[in-house]
Amino acid sequence: MRIDDVQGGLDIRLSDQGLARAIAYRIHKTLPSRVLESQSVVKGRGDKVITKLTISVVVVPVGRGSVIMYLNKPYYVLGYSQGTFRILDLSSNETVNVRVGDLIRHGISIPKYEATCIEKGNTRTLEVIIGSERYMINNAC
Question: What pTM was computed for the model?
């Protein structure tokens, strides 16, 4: 086994393909992610073929309560279940369900933001400030 730091993650090299798959799918089961597998022939002569299996686990580094930029719009992450994020468009207050694969394909970023819970009487409102924009989310804190 060999582990190297690479840009954006870790490169883990194993000689046991079954163990590699088990590790990849355990990560996938635990964290919002997508697993990609590819196989290529490294050497081939007659009946002897040596292949290389590459398994990539792309993890989405957000969870409930995160603020993200997706498709150039700010969203608040309401939750995650069965491969789908439930997110709130902060501009329109529209709730959207987005698959993990779509977030990975289109890309997300984490903006610099401030979040404060404001209580007025029986109402609790989360105020999110991104740059000069201010968003209010009722019953989020």
Answer: 0.76
Query: What span, in angstroms and rounded, lies between the C-alpha atoms of 41 and 35?
Result: 20
Which residue matches tokens 């933001």?
Answer: 113
The set of residues, in sequence order, having a beta carbon less than 8 Å from that of 128 and lying 6+ positions away, is 67, 74, 76, 90, 113, 114, 115, 134, 135, 136, 137
pLDDT digits (tens, 9 = 90+) for 48-94: 888 889 999 989 989 999 999 999 999 999 999 988 999 999 999 99
* Residue-by-residue DSSP string for 15-66: S-HHHHHHHHHHHHHHSSEEEEEEEEEEEEETTEEEEEEEEEEEE----TT-
Q: How far apart are CA 139 and CA 118, in angstroms?
A: 10
Q: Which of 69, 141, 62, 63 lies closest to 107 in space, CA to CA? A: 69
Sign, Cα dihedral of 56, 59, 60, 61: negative
Sign of CA dihedral 62, 65, 67, 70: positive
